[in-house]
Specification:
The structure holds four protein chains of four kinds.
Chain A (H helix, E strand, L loop, with lengths): L15 H29 L5 H6 L5 H10 L6 H13 L7 H5 L7 H36 L4 H15 L2 H15 L20 H30 L2 H8 L4 H39 L4 H11 L2 H29 L1 H4 L3
Chain C lengths: L25 H10 L33 E6 L16 H10 L4 E3 L5 E3 L2 E6 L5 E6 L13 H12 L19 E4 L2 E5 L35 E7 L3 E6 L13 E6 L3 H9 L5 E2 L4 H10 L3 E15 L9 H10 L2 H8 L4 E3 L22 H10 L6 E6 L6 H13 L4 E6 L2 H4 L11 E6 L4 H8 L14 H12 L3 H18 L2 E13 L3 E2 L8 H4 L6 E2 L2
Parallel strand pairs in C: 1-10, 1-11, 14-15
Antiparallel strand pairs in C: 2-3, 4-5, 5-7, 6-7, 8-9, 9-10, 11-17, 12-16, 12-17, 13-17, 18-19
Chain D lengths: L6 E12 L4 E11 L3 E5 L6 H7 L8 E10 L2 E2 L5 H7 L4 E4 L3 H4 L6 H12 L6 H10 L18 H13 L5 E5 L7 H18 L2 E6 L2 H7 L2 E6 L2 E7 H6 L4 H8 L38 H5 L5 E4 L2 E3 L4 H7 L21 E12 L2 E13 L4 E5 L6 H8 L7 E6 L2 E2 L9 H6 E4 L13 H13 L3 H14 L16 H14 L4 E5 L7 H18 L2 E6 L2 H7 L2 E6 L2 E7 H6 L4 H9 L10
Helix pairs in contact in D: 4-5, 4-6, 15-16, 15-17, 16-17, 17-18
Classes of the chains: A mainly alpha, B mainly alpha, C alpha+beta, D alpha/beta.
């Protein structure tokens, strides 16, 4: 008995995984490059001479001259950009314009933001640790019990959370847990150098705020993904082959719903980094968000450019990681036909 | 029973629509029932709700209930304008990228990815601190933030529709691309594309409220729900209603819109809840 | 007599209890911080001003207990925070400087001055030269003794253009001829006669540094606390100075200054015990907490003037009758009650209440709609329409503007409000000094200083564009007059002209309003600054 | 036919309905003996799949059981609790899905998929050897690495073999097969059918084979049950039902099947099959039945036994039995080609390729042919043979990468928009999927008016009147004009698409698999219409299809394509009866067709 036609010969020039990762890395690099141009132009196009604005009242002609030299503003835009980007790539985030204005010869941005970056990352990671399993869990439950009370309850709750801005959620939480119950500290003041983890009770409310605001979107997306996979043919076929319901849900429905959910959760995490700005301000948490807001206000170009670039890098990395996870989950991408 | 009406029959659809109608009515006609002038201080600041002032007074002593009735219009118009403009930009980019199927598509999509790689709140902050806090800056800023997410959805929908028979027949007739898009493609992608407009509209409201909170959005003394929240937020312990009332209105609007949106999605036959996470917009 | 032609930093604007309640530094502080530097020095002499609401609660009961850490929360300045007291702008910078360094003259709670590092300020006959006698036996934190050379070095450093906050105070001094007669005596020649040079050296931008100090990253001073750590925009810590010249002080072992931008967060930090003292407590919260008593509300009267101003060179304000009418429209008690919840005294259109030479004899102006209407009729300006530009740069600004617009309707005057972002309100390159009708805030160290900076012919911050040669000569006569009685009499003439013809409507002199934990003792209300003028050396923590 | 062995499957009075009340399947009874294949035949909407799934105790969302009983090798299926129902499925009765690509878990290796079924039923004994054995049983044992492969790495045929392996791994006595070969090409289908036959003969497995393709069922089944509108209308031994159909619907169905061995004019069944919820009182086939009389619609006819083993649900079956087959007029021999007039369309050395990313793969390689005016040329080949691509090139939807296309002597530009108005008017195309051929947002009339306005420049008024005539020509009632496509059946929509093509008064009509998505009866009607149009309007046609039967009924000459190249061309008679090319011969031998004695 001859077997049916041989499966189509897979083209073996370069292993598909490497090609896939290669393409993604190249894409990420290009995006970062373009993002850096955007950031640079965005920040340096601010009206008024940057140096005089930073100096404010101390903007005597001599002081402006000196600061412009220090901030390399006298050089043509392109050289400024290449120096800045060159420095960034080697980890030198340049100087804080305000620092220079205060007469310091060298005010490294990294020294200013090393703590806030650490704090923001810790806050983001803790929130992510809760958000991912919760989104997947609740999303799956809502999908499996679609249309029934559990589904309605979860979707109403998530809708309500989406509806309120973070600072309202934050204030309500503080109102309940501090003003009324007085069980949790309302603010998260972390002395510099000390890790936020040293006093976890302070993190409870900020993390809760971020969770409530970001969980909703995650649940909705996972639910949508699951509902679609539950209607897939292979789920019906599995049931008709007598597989147990739990086995079908986990190994057939959930496994194929994971890939799209991962992409969505990555976007949710990206939002987390952006959304932290509000939450940090509400809880006076010494993170990147509040520092960035003051830097934009002070027109501290050095800090704004570097921090924006840092956030963009984290953004793109998250996308990359999400793509790699998807690569692991979806065999079709990993091993071509 | 055509698709549009069916979603009304479903319980959540009906509830959603009634809530939206109620909130929009308050926003548009509320001002004619306002007992006091929203900008005039009527009694001591932050006084609790009383028979005269049903929701008490805000940090300046103005009647919260009157401001609530006045405050809806600007929130809804601003958010609607921003979302609308976002759709305008996003749809055109998405249609061109999806329909042309030529070199433009990857170029447009790469730039969309870059835009999505840019932290939106930061983009707004830089834009506002550069161009000032005018209302137009806010609307354009929020629209530009929404556009990439929208263009991605529109492109996917366009790709799917443009291989269908009726589109190819039109192309075979030699009709101009513009006519094909407007007559054949656009009507058939509106439903799936607009399903997530509810979520986007809510998100516009939230980002405007956040910008207000950071002090860069609408300027006092405008009576606006988002501004009322950020103005009175710090006195929540003293007079919670000054914050809870506007927050409740925004929450109601969001829940209403999204319940309606989900019901429409279900009535489309596919549980087409869009893949755009709130964050995808970000 | 040559006029002082020194560029005046916007020293008149003190950034203190300011609208950072909006949650971020960005809205107000950032803009204002860059736009101005705080200049609140203790004025010398003059009785304490009357106050109508919110008496300061005294916290001095009991004997001081040594030890512990005092944690004070301020509105942060982000990356712009600095330890260089000659460039300091914000209250948080001021809090650090006032505890690291010492002034030549200290300001007393009744706004009179007392001996600091200088025991005597002796002027010659025509007040063109001074001889300063220094306090002996004072040591810097690094053990060096404080002497004349340090004073001379400090004054010259203050004059450097980069140190914009201190330049105006030494503008009148002939720096070249400064001479140390001996280790504890300094000869200070002046460029123009000044009967009260001492008043210039009370303010924190003029305190003394050690000879040769250039890099302020690890400052050395003579003050009650010694520098330990500093992280701009977050937190700074200081250790107790064991051999401080005021023996026995400070009581606490460590001082911690914490930056918390959001008012709500700062208040919650105080309530939850994460900080012991909070500067700039919003007036609405203050009223509420005075009732509950869960925290101590520290209220201090101050000469800090909140004012509307009219540009006398822009129509319709060129006509003095219009200006007078506007002054009669304002219902000052209503403004104070609603805009700042009663935390301030009624203003009388001239600046410097409680400061020496302030003319208390001028009648307190009250709202008179009828008179205002007739003045407008005479000036042919019935149903006048003007635009008032306001900004949430200070708490009460927008509220007062809204209320004034409401009050003006009674006189047939329509005031349209135009709100502008804080970052451009005091920015000379944007709107400052170009607005016809706007608001401002002056906490002058002395009335001399206010008139020089705001109204003299060479005034760098002439908001009302007041140009009057005769009045100008009268001003300099008053400044140079050494005889107390004639000086007071000349100053009264100067102020009366402003009272009648000036462009300023001073509706209140706002209080300092701060919050303390009930554990904190020893901090008294002080007109010169927040938290009892930063005198943390007096503070101690009860059980 | 072996005498009836002990029945393994016993279905008595099975009824199912929508939760909203309308009946879907009513009073269906049949039995299947071991080693027997029962063909369950019916068009879409006849309830055959719902019935088949009921054998596994499964009802789709919104469908509920109304009554009757099903027992398989003595075990009752319906009304069981979910747990013991679960160990019945796969062990006692198993399921082979229709679309194997969709029915296999994409993120699970095929070996593991089979192991899952084993593990679900024989917890302990699940082992790699038994998986290997079951794959060998379906001839997938040759490649040792196959169990570690993922579904997307297998061909359609291999995927289906895996599903069959899964269905047989626990040796269930009965298997339910839901149209297992529709998605496959003819040659693979032939092999799978042989596979199934072997399972029946060697392992004595009983099978319920659900299909709409009577030709395939005739080849496989021992007994056939024909369903129409949720009820059994006829059931009996396969050869008897095919050769001596009693029920008018079965007769019409058998005669509507295009059979390439006996080219004959097809007679479609007029009208549309009754949908769920629209069941008439009496016999459901009355609206489409030629022999219907008043009594038919009074009461539901009983299922009476024409012979002990052959029952029919029609009150007039006795009269019809004597009448015998009505004399289908044999299809006129292909009209001889008139004088060798100059070819309307000339294709020389056509080359076409698809580019994705950097890789280019040629889809059409050096194809040349000509179409004379008034002639119908069939383009036959399996999916992936390039036949559709050629059609799209002619219509100007895809640019060729080599060769020339001459229409009426002049060369055609690659893209339609660059072609002169005349060319765009004279060439029209009709697509395969009826549900996507019309813009759902436009009324039928406006879809037809569009070419009138664009290609023939008629005014609004002129266009409106002509639409009526076009609908008549497409044998559609005029009221269809102001309806939306969603309200029409597949057959009706395809007729509207044809009307739209005719609106341009074309000379060449390209039909790209226009009937393959339709039910047999509807397909026959559409083919009837196309032949009529071709004769009346002297239209030349390029008919693209993979169904050799359809070719025999419609085309004058045939072009056989295989993987992008032209293997053979010639008149229908030549190619179908005396195929020269080896591939064509394999194609013809594999294609299912009715047995010789079939009713025609």
């Amino acid at each position: 008995m001859t077997t049916v036609a041989e499966p189509r010969a897979a083209d073996r020039e370069v292993s598909p995984v490497l090609a896939f990762v290669g393409r993604r890395l190249l894409g990420a690099a290009v995006s970062l490059l373009v993002a850096s141009v955007l950031i640079f132009i965005g920040t340096s196009v601010l009206p008024g001479n940057a140096a005089s604005v930073v100096l404010g009242r101390g903007a005597t002609p001599a002081a402006v001259q000196k600061l412009e030299k220090q901030m390399h503003l006298n050089k043509p835009l392109t050289t400024q950009y290449t120096n800045w980007l060159g420095g960034f790539v080697h980890g030198d985030l340049g100087d804080s314009s305000i620092g220079l204005a205060q007469g310091q010869k060298h005010a490294p941005v990294w020294a200013l933001i090393s703590d806030p970056v650490k704090n923001s990352l810790i806050l983001a990671l803790i929130t992510a640790l809760f958000m991912i399993p919760l989104s997947l869990g609740l999303g799956a439950i809502a999908a499996v019990y679609a249309g029934r009370p559990a589904d309605h309850a979860i979707s109403i709750m998530s809708l309500a959370a989406i509806a309120l801005p973070e600072f309202v959620i934050g204030s309500l939480l503080v109102g309940v847990f501090f003003v009324w119950l007085d069980v949790l500290p309302p603010v998260a003041i972390i002395p510099p150098g000390q890790s936020p983890l040293s006093d976890p009770t302070k993190l409870i409310l900020p993390v809760a705020t971020l969770l409530l605001a970001s969980l909703a979107a995650g649940i909705r997306m996972v639910r949508a993904g699951m509902v679609e996979t539950l209607q897939a043919e292979y789920v019906m076929a599995a049931r008709l082959n007598g597989l147990s319901e739990r086995w079908v849900l986990w190994r057939y429905a959930m496994r194929n719903a994971l890939a799209p959910s991962v992409q969505v959760l990555a976007q949710n995490l990206q939002w987390l980094i952006g959304g932290i700005i509000i939450t940090e301000t509400v809880f006076a948490y010494p993170g990147l968000g509040s520092l960035l807001v003051t830097a934009v206000g002070n027109r501290d170009l050095g800090v704004v450019q570097s921090v924006a670039m840092l956030i963009a890098v984290v953004y793109v990395m998250l996308n990359l990681v999400a793509d790699l996870i998807v690569l692991l989950l979806v065999p079709k991408l990993r091993e071509p036909a | 029973m055509t698709g549009r009406l069916r979603f009304m029959r479903s319980f959540s659809g009906a509830v959603g629509v009634t809530i939206v109608v109620f909130v929009v009515a308050v926003a548009i006609f509320g001002r004619y029932f306002a007992p006091y002038d929203p900008n005039v201080p009527v009694t001591a600041p932050l006084s609790p709700p009383s028979s005269h002032y049903w929701l008490g007074t805000d940090f300046l002593g103005r009647d919260v209930f009157s401001r609530l009735l006045y405050g809806g219009r600007s929130v809804i118009t601003l958010a609607a304008l921003a979302t609308g403009l976002g759709y305008l930009i996003g749809m055109s980019v998405g249609l061109v990228a999806g329909f042309s199927r030529s070199r433009i598509d990857p170029v447009l999509m790469r730039s969309v990815d870059v835009m999505l790689a840019f932290p939106p709140l930061l983009f707004l902050l830089v834009l506002i601190s550069g161009a000032g806090t005018g209302v137009q800056v806010l609307v354009i800023g929020v629209a530009v933030i929404q556009a990439p997410g929208i263009s991605r959805i529109v492109r996917t929908a366009t790709l799917e529709v443009s291989v269908r028979g009726y589109v190819e027949a039109a192309i075979a007739r030699g009709e101009r691309s513009y006519a094909v898009i407007v007559r054949e493609v656009l009507p058939n992608i509106m439903a799936p594309v607009l399903v997530d407009s509810g979520l986007r509209f809510t998100y516009s409201i939230l980002i405007i409220a956040s910008v207000n909170f950071l002090g860069l959005g609408l300027q006092p003394p405008a009576s606006d729900w988002a501004l009322m929240i950020s103005d009175n937020r710090q006195y929540i312990a003293i007079q919670a209603w000054a914050v809870l009332a506007p927050a409740a209105m925004i929450a109601l609007l969001t829940i209403g819109i999204n319940l309606t949106g989900d019901a429409i999605a279900r009535s489309l036959g596919r549980s087409y809840v869009p893949k755009t996470a709130r964050s995808a917009v970000i | 007599m040559s006029d002082p032609h020194n560029p005046r930093p916007e020293t008149g604007i003190e950034l203190f209890d300011h609208r950072i309640s909006r949650g971020t530094l960005l809205r107000g502080a950032a803009g204002t911080m860059l736009g101005m530097s705080p200049l609140l020095a203790a004025a010398c002499g003059g009785g304490s001003s009357s106050s109508t609401a919110g008496t300061g609660a005294s916290t001095s009961a009991g004997t001081p207990v040594k030890g512990g850490t005092l944690r004070a929360g301020f509105v942060g300045g982000g990356t712009a925070e600095t330890l260089n007291l000659y460039q300091g702008v914000t209250p948080i910078d001021e809090s650090r400087a006032q505890n690291l360094f010492d002034p030549l003259l200290v300001v007393n709670p009744d706004l009179t001055t007392g001996p600091g590092l200088a025991l005597e300020f002796n002027a010659n006959a025509d007040a063109t030269e001074y001889e300063i006698k220094l306090r002996p036996g004072v040591e810097f934190h690094n053990g060096k003794t404080f002497g004349a050379e340090d004073v001379i070095y400090s004054m010259r450093l203050m004059a450097k253009s980069a140190n914009f906050a201190s330049v105006p105070f030494v503008a009148g001094i002939n720096l070249k001829d400064l001479k140390a007669i001996n280790a504890t005596t300094v000869k200070v020649p002046l460029l123009y006669p000044d009967a009260d040079l001492g008043a210039n050296f009370v303010y924190w931008n003029t305190w003394m540094v050690q000879n040769g100090e250039t890099d302020f990253t690890k400052p050395v001073g003579t003050g009650p606390f010694m520098f330990d750590t500093f992280k701009a925009g977050t937190q700074s810590t200081f250790k107790r100075n064991p051999n401080y010249w005021q023996t026995g002080k400070p009581y606490v072992d460590e001082l911690l200054i914490q930056s918390i931008d959001d008012n709500n967060a700062r208040l919650e930090a105080l309530q939850s015990g994460q900080i012991d003292a909070m500067a700039q407590l919003p007036t609405a919260d203050a009223k509420a907490h005075q009732a509950t008593g869960d925290i101590t509300v520290l209220v201090a009267k101050s000469p800090q003037a909140m004012m509307f101003y009219m540009d006398t060179t822009q129509a319709p304000f060129t006509d003095v009758r219009v200006r007078q009418a506007m002054k009669l429209i304002a219902d000052r008690p209503a403004l104070v009650a609603s805009a700042i919840n009663g935390f301030g005294s009624i203003g009388n259109d001239i600046v410097g209440k409680g400061l020496p030479f302030y003319d208390n004899s001028l009648p307190q102006r009250v709202q008179d709609i009828a008179q205002a209407k007739s003045l407008l009729k005479q000036a042919g300006q019935e149903n006048l329409t003007v635009t008032l530009q306001t900004s949430p740069i200070f708490p009460g600004f927008v509220e007062a503007a809204t209320l004034l617009a409401q009050q003006a309707k009674a006189a047939g005057v329509t005031i349209n409000l135009k709100q502008v972002p804080p970052s451009s309100y005091y920015n000379p390159s944007a709107l400052y000094l170009k607005m016809a009708f706007a608001e401002t805030q002056w906490p002058p160290p002395s009335i001399k200083f206010f008139y020089l900076q705001a109204l003299s012919s060479k005034a760098p911050y002439n908001e009302t564009h007041w140009k009057n040669a005769a009045w100008n000569d009268l001003l300099f006569k008053a400044i140079g007059e050494t005889d107390q009685a004639t000086a007071q009499q000349t100053w009264n003439q100067v102020q009366e002209i402003q009272y009648n013809q000036g462009g300023y409507i001073n509706w209140t002199n706002a209080d300092w309003v701060d919050g303390l934990s009930t554990k904190v003792k020893g901090l008294e209300p002080h007109p010169a600054g927040v938290l009892g003028n930063y005198l943390f050396m007096n503070a101690w923590l009860s059980a | 036919m072996s005498d009836a062995p002990a029945p393994v499957v016993q279905v008595e009075g099975l009824s199912l309905g929508l939760t909203t009340g309308d009946p879907v399947v009513e009073d269906v009874s049949f039995t299947v003996g071991a080693g027997q294949i029962l063909g369950l035949v019916g068009e879409s909407g006849s309830g055959k799949t719902t019935t088949a799934l009921a054998l596994l105790g499964y009802t789709r969302r919104g469908v509920e059981l109304r009554g009757g009983s099903v027992s398989i090798s003595g075990q009752p299926i319906l009304g069981q609790g979910i747990s013991n129902l679960r160990n019945l499925r796969g062990k006692v009765v198993s399921y082979v899905p229709q679309d194997p690509g969709g029915a296999l878990n994409p993120s699970l290796r095929v070996g593991d998929a089979v192991m899952d079924v084993l593990r679900a039923h024989r917890a302990g004994a699940a082992s790699l050897e038994s998986v290997k054995a079951s794959l060998e049983r379906v001839e997938l044992g040759a490649d040792p690495r196959l169990p570690r492969r993922y579904p997307h790495q297998l061909s359609g045929g291999q995927q289906q073999r895996v599903t069959i392996a899964m269905a047989c791994v626990c040796d269930p006595p009965v298997a339910v097969l839901d149209e297992p070969t529709t998605g496959l090409d003819v040659i693979t289908q032939d092999r799978i059918l042989a596979e199934l036959a072997r399972l029946r003969d060697d392992d004595g497995m009983a099978m319920v084979y659900v299909s709409h393709d009577l030709a395939v069922v005739a080849k496989m089944a021992d007994r056939i049950v024909v369903m129409y509108a949720g009820r059994v209308v006829e059931s009996g031994p396969a050869d008897e039902v095919i050769e001596r159909p009693r029920h008018p619907y079965t007769r019409a169905l058998v005669s509507a099947i295009p059979d390439f061995r006996r080219p004959r004019a097809l007679r479609g069944i007029p009208g549309v099959s009754v949908g769920v919820g629209e069941w008439p009182s009496g016999c459901a086939f009355v609206p489409r039945c030629r022999y219907a009389i008043d009594r038919c619609s009074e009461a539901l006819p009983e299922l009476s036994a024409a012979t002990p083993d052959h029952s029919v649900r029609c009150i007039r079956w006795r009269e019809l039995a004597s009448e015998g087959a009505d004399p289908g007029d044999g299809r006129a021999a292909a009209t001889a080609v008139e004088a060798e007039d100059e070819a309307l369309l000339q294709v020389d050395h056509l080359e076409v390729e698809y580019r994705n990313g950097r890789r280019r793969n040629t889809v059409v390689h050096d194809v040349s042919f000509a179409i004379e005016s008034g002639r119908c040329v069939a383009l036959v080949g399996e999916s992936g043979s390039g036949k559709t691509t050629i059609g799209r090139c002619l219509a100007g939807l895809h640019p060729p990468s080599g060769g020339r296309i001459l229409f009426d002597g002049s060369e055609l530009a690659a893209f339609a928009r660059n072609r002169p108005l005349a060319a765009r008017r004279r060439i029209q195309i009709v697509f395969q999927n009826p549900f996507e051929s019309l813009n759902p947002r436009h009324k039928v009339s406006s879809s037809i008016e569009r070419p009138l306005r664009v290609l023939r420049g008629l005014s609004q008024g002129e266009a409106r009147t002509e639409v009526g005539e076009l609908l008549d020509r497409a044998k559609l009632p005029r009221r269809v004009g102001d309806r939306f496509p969603i309200e029409l059946s597949g057959g009706e929509r395809q007729r509207v698409a044809i009307a739209r093509a005719l609106a341009a008064k074309p000379d060449l009509l390209i039909c790209d698999e226009v009937t393959s998505a339709l039910d047999v009866s509807v397909q026959a009607a559409v083919l009837e219409l196309l032949s009529e149009l071709q004769r009346d309007l002297r239209l030349s046609m390029l008919f693209i299809t993979h169904n050799l039967g359809v070719v025999a009924c419609v085309a004058d000459s045939v072009l056989v394509m295989d993987r992008g190249s032209l293997r053979e061309s010639g008149t229908v008679a030549q190619v179908l009866n005396t195929p020269a090319d080896e591939y064509t011969q394999r194609l013809l031998s594999a294609a299912p067709c009715l047995p010789d004695g079939a009713y025609s």
